[in-house]
Amino acid sequence: MSIGFLALLAIIPIVVALILMVGMRWPATRAMPFAWGACVVCAIFGWDISILRLMALSIQGVIIAIGVLIIVFGAILILYTLEKSGGMETIQYGMQNVSRDRRVQAIIIGFLFAAFIEGAAGFGTPAALAAPLLLGLGFPAMAAAVVCLVFNSVPVSFGAVGTPILVGFGLLKEKIAALVGADPNLPFTGFDGFAKLVGEWATLMHGPMAVILTIFMLGFMTRFWGPERSWAAGFRAWKFCVFAAICFLVPYMACAWALGPEFPAMLGGLIGLAVVVWGAKQGICVPKDSWGFGDPSKWEASWSGTASQNTSTEFKAHMSQFQAWLPYVIICFLLVISRIPELGIKGWMTAQKITFSNILGFKDITESITYLYLPGTFFIFVALLTIWLHKMPAPAVKAAWSESFQKMKSPTIALCFAVALVAIFRGSAVNPLGAPSMPLALAETVGAAAGAIWPLLAAFVGGLGAFITGSATISDLMFGEFQWDMATMLTLPRSIIEAAQTVGGAMGNMICIHNIVAACAVVGLSGREGEVMRKTFWPFLLYGCVVGIICWVLVAANPGAF
Fold first, then answer.
1. SS3 sequence, 225-239?
2. Residue 382 CA to chain centroid, in angstroms?
3. CB atoms < 10 A from the CB of 326, how many?
4. Fewer CB within 10 Å of terminal CB in the chain, N or C?
5. If DSSP codes are grouped into helix, strand and coil, which group holds residue 182?
6. At what angle are helices 3-18 and 28-47 packed, to 10 degrees?
7. Taking CA 493 as the corner, what is the angle to CA 489 and CA 499, rounded to the nearest 5 degrees?
8. Helix axis angle, 321-339 relative to 87-98, nearest 10°?
9. Is 109 in contact with 88 (CB distance < 8 Å)?
10. Which among 345, 310, 410 is positioned nearest to 73, based on CA atoms?
């Protein structure tokens, strides 16, 4: 079969999911089984993959989904535990003293706090923690989910201590080693040097978006969830957006250019958070008017979910701010010490796993659950610890756990089918026809049509990878070699094109079904994933267009770059 026909088949499951979720507004619990079924049929017809192998790949996907579900459950449990303990109201009281302005809170929690979590853990953890926190502060559920999904983009290329670049482009090591051996004049001496170079270019693409996106999203927030339905209300906070972006970008870019891809997001988020919170307390660049979502009784029904929604305007402290924030501090501490290899804990924790080998007899289909290393395990542990830290009575503990379990039905169904579909997409690379995998067939078809305008489109391929797989790292693994070959064929700087790929994978986090299902689950919006995707598509498109233009300019200005 021609590559074009394979691409047409490969896009059918995606189109099915989009039509059902976005067009017909089906919940993901109904839409994703149909999309998975379409993927199975296309894999049989186009790639001649046996039904038994497709079932094995689907089981592999379900095993992967279990790890995501543990994160979702842990995040929901932390939210309800803090609500029942009085910790959340204490945090709300403290945030009022920093700023009552919801625009300021969105930047502090949705952008900077989430950026630090992304730098430490990645893999969907930021939205799982930040979105419920915004919900608890009094944000409408839909606003909390969309804001956190969109803001979880700028730091993602450097998330989980640099994993998207260091692991995502790992398949390029042999190509890079061969080039280094043949040309001693290259601007790097090995894979680590190339990864650092890619990270440097990536900061030049992400950097402007740290300013543009924060301003755009505050306008977006006030337009769709504000009482005045006005873009201008959000744009009035532009000075604070610029201040926050600079506080984040200075350490972010300094780390990328001086140290490499491991710490830009983590230190950019942490240092930026500390400086911006201090600045907000001092009134630096804070808007003169204090903006809010208005009277909750007048909110549209579409704004809220099934999770308990804070509608208070005044709060009281039930404990000290330190005690209230301590669960989050412990989570951050555990994430950091478990993610930095030099501390020695990561190796031991990742070795503790439950392995499912030779699924349904296929030796190449194996999956593991690293149960101690999962962020969700930390969340559950800290939720248990919070019972003692906050001296919670037994009825409050019982209520928190029972409500958390009740929220898990819909995301479980949706995620199992969504990740099973992803496993088939990835697993289609192994087929009796020797055909390219489903995602690669799509990318090669787009690449053949694009030709010389490839710098404008390279990031969208990375976004496609993240949309399909739910991971910027896997997007880089999937399309890294393809982007290398496209750059080589078109005589474009390979490091710049690979940077566009990883930036695209980062922006794809906004629209990937995997992340949207998880974010909706933690704020009580399960079943309304299509509504969220309709909102996040526009900032995704903006991000891709801006990055495409920057990539084009960088390529034109650096024709001799590697």
1. HCCCCCHHHHHCCHH
2. 22
3. 18
4. N
5. helix
6. 170
7. 110
8. 100
9. no
10. 410
Give the global pTM: 0.88
| pLDDT tens per residue, range 478-526 | 899 899 989 988 999 999 999 999 999 999 999 998 899 989 999 999 9
Work out the number of other CB atoms within 10 angstroms of the CB of residue 377: 19
Closest-CA residue to 493 (of 549, 454, 450): 454
56 within 8 A of 367, measured Cβ to Cβ? no
Which of 508, 513, 497, 516 is CA-nearest to residue 539? Answer: 508
Q: What is the mean pLDDT of residues 344-355?
A: 90
Tokens describing residue 510: 């906004």
Residues 346 and 344: their CA atoms lie apart, in Å, by 6
For 12, how many CA atoms within 13 A lie in the half-sphere containing its CB?
Answer: 17
CA 67, CA 78: separation in Å to the nearest integer?
17
pLDDT, position 234: 97
Of 122-126, 145-149, 462-466, least confident by mean pLDDT is 122-126
CA 462 to chain CA centroid, Å, is 13
What average pLDDT does the chain have? Answer: 92
Question: Which residues are registered as beta bridge partners of 5?
Answer: none
Residue 537 pLDDT > 80: yes
Beta-carbon contacts of 87 under 8 Å, excluding residues fewer than 6 positions away, are 81, 318, 319, 323, 324, 327, 386, 390
Residues 61-79: b if buried by 16+ CB within 10 A, e if exposed: bbbbbbbbbbbbbbbbbbb
Q: Rounded distance, CA 54 to CA 514, Å?
A: 20
How many angstroms separate the CA atoms of 476 and 462, rounded?
Answer: 7
At 308 the pLDDT is: 58
- Quote the strand ranges of 261-410, DSSP E: 354-356, 367-369
pLDDT score of 385:
96
On whether the CB atoms of residues 138 and 312 are closer than 8 A, the answer is yes
Residue pair 114/269 in contact by the 8 Å Cβ criterion: yes
Instruction: Identify which of 21, 87, 133, 102 has the alpha carbon closest to the alpha carbon of residue 523.
Output: 133
Residue 313 has pLDDT above 60, yes or no: no
Over residues 38-89, the pLDDT tens digits come to 999 999 999 999 999 999 999 999 999 998 899 889 988 988 899 899 998 8
Question: Could you tell me if 423 and 64 are in contact, meaning their C-beta atoms sit under 8 angstroms apart?
Answer: yes
> Facing residues of 369 across strands?
354
Which positions ≥6 away from 372 have C-beta within 8 Å?
A: 349, 352
Query: What's the token pair of residue 413?
Result: 């169904």
In a 3-state reduction of DSSP, which class is residue 437?
Answer: coil
Which tokens go with 214? 């924060």
Identify whether the C-beta of residue 418 lies closer than 8 Å to the C-beta of residue 356: no
CA distances to 14, 435, 446, 448 from 7, rounded to whole Å, are 11, 11, 9, 12
* Cβ(459)–Cβ(551) below 8 Å: yes
One-letter amino acid at 125 equals T
Q: Cβ(157)–Cβ(199) under 8 Å?
A: yes
310: pLDDT strictly greater than 60? no
Residues 6+ apart with CB under 8 A from 439: 10, 425, 426, 464, 465, 468, 469, 478, 479
